[in-house]
Amino acid sequence: MSYIQALTEATEERSGYSPYRLADMADCGSPDRLDSSGALFLCSVRDAVMEHVTYAGSDWDDDSMPDMIEKSFMDNGIAHEIADGAPDVYTFTRWAEFVDLAAYQEVPEFGEWPEDLTDAAGVALYQIAERLVSALVAEVCEHLRNYEPPHVNYPHNPGYLHDCPACESRCYCTDDPGHVECVYCAGQSEEA
Ligand SMILES: [Zn+2]
Ligand SMILES: [Zn+2]
What pTM, to 2 d.p., does this model score? Predict the structure, then answer.
């Protein structure tokens, strides 16, 4: 296992989330069917998020990965880009998505609704998509933050081998008086 594998595991699991589960995460109405307009809307947001998460995380095979993924979604405007592209460009389909996900329950998060009704439907759907993006990214990052790299395949006392990702990931010091400082702590004091 590595962070890259933990990322693959996290994205594969979420790629299987049903539209109903996604609706829960987005805090919107539950779609009518597995292939209704609203269901397809939620699934396309899910797939876009997983694609970008994989792309953004693949260069960072260490514990900085979740931070870099969050940074990419916020600072590079990926979250906005995905949510913005989510509402269908065809009027009929957009309104089908709107009804299917009960977007009429939305309260405007950005001032007033636009005057044009179809634009307003787009903003309401944008809000739903945006919440889903945040919830999915947060879940993937939590999975990565809970991931503990394994020790390298070389006999050693846990905490006392340099260049072992597990030893270097956290402190292994005990309360034993006279214990030797673990490599994690040694690294911290070197940096300071
Ligand atoms: Zn180790
Ligand atoms: Zn320590």
Answer: 0.84
